Amino acid sequence: MSYYDVDSILTDAEKIPCTFQFDIPDLGYLENNPGQTLKTGARVGLPLWLAEMLAIANTGGIGPDDQGKSFVAFDLPPALGNDVMQALKADPRAIPIRDQSAHFYSLATHMMDLSDEPELGTVLRKTFVTRAGEIALHARKAGGGGSSKGGASEEGSNLGVGGAGEEFLRGLDEWERKLFRKAHDGARAGKEWMEGVKKF
Amino acid sequence: MPMYGDLGNKLVQHAKRTQILPHLPPYQTELVRTVTREVRDLHRDVDSLLEPFQGSFDPAADPASACTLLVNHLSMRRNKRCLLAYHRTRTEKLEVLVWNGSDVLDLSAQQAGGANGVPGANDGGTSSLSPQEEDYVRQYGDLLAAYKGQWTDVDLTGSLEPARDLFIDVRVLKDAGEIQTEYGAINLTKNSQFYVRQGDVERLIAQGYLQKLG
Questions:
Q1: Do A50 and B1 touch (CB under 8 A)?
Q2: Into which CATH architecture does domain A77-200 fall?
Q3: A25 versus B119: which is more confidently predicted?
Q4: Chain centre distance of CA B8
Q5: What is the pLDDT of residue A157?
Q6: How far apart (Å, rounded) are the C-alpha atoms in residues B47 and B68?
Q7: Which of A63, A94, A107, B200 is most buried (most C-beta within 10 Å)?
Q8: What are the φ and ψ backbone dihedral angles of A29, each rounded to 5 degrees?
Q9: pTM of the full predicted structure?
């Protein structure tokens, strides 16, 4: 994850629910109330780039209640909430995770850095492995390069594959899309090479 | 509700799209300017917040101000990252285009939607490059030319595909004037066809003047 990585920057724009632990006079605009005080306990969806630092910054509060308290406390975003996790446990292939977040895995790994969620890791690992197999399968078919049929309609969109796979492929997040593209291009390049070899 | 950093995010979405496109979309002059202005506004806010403290601000004594300062600081940092990523994405693309044989005129005349520019149609104000980018392309092109100049018998930017035939048929898509070849001068007028040495016209094909036949 480079500083200049566009996907990493877009992941950081994902909003996560935060609860403010202080009254902040100048930040009412975050809650859509410019000019008002942002009250303790206010719940605001903040982009990750902001929430992360506000959550880990040491406020150095001196009051008896403020000791070691950060500016905000955060929860897992709905994309990683219990509902989604339960659904993923049931069948990882049935969920269009793109609808949860276009940078689903990236968001999840980031959140796991910030909070201790051992179960999240287990579920996601299983999800990815199951879906990766499915993606590889679709990528081979999409190239039209299967052993049965010749290469029909190879050019064009990677995603307009048609048939049952279309729904699944539409639900891929950015990372999975990259995987799909690589698997697809790899399979095709392999096939092209094999055909080239025969000619000589 | 618009928030600090939203416009920067828009810029990065442009960058994301740029990565996939074959050509370079127009430079987002207005958006870049607005994001920079946002940074300047935030900086001014920070200055006015800190002014009463005369340089002896203690975050522990005033967590509310500390939080506001942190939010402002993070917003500036975020905008900076978005701006840098946007420009770097474009710069990398420009370098690739220069290696592929485009020069400033091709690139600056290029309009959104058209993959190949129409050289000579650059009537100012329509360039998809910022003035700084044009400068960058020019200088990068010079650097590349100097680098290539070290080898006279190898064309570093030539095609990596081994040629099947030394000579090829080409059709002229756009008037390209007269070119000199080993076998004399050829006048490339639109819609004419020639049988020429591939090495002589490779660049013109890449630029879209000629089309290879067969």
A1: no
A2: Up-down Bundle (1.20)
A3: A25
A4: 18
A5: 42
A6: 12
A7: A107
A8: -60, -25
A9: 0.78
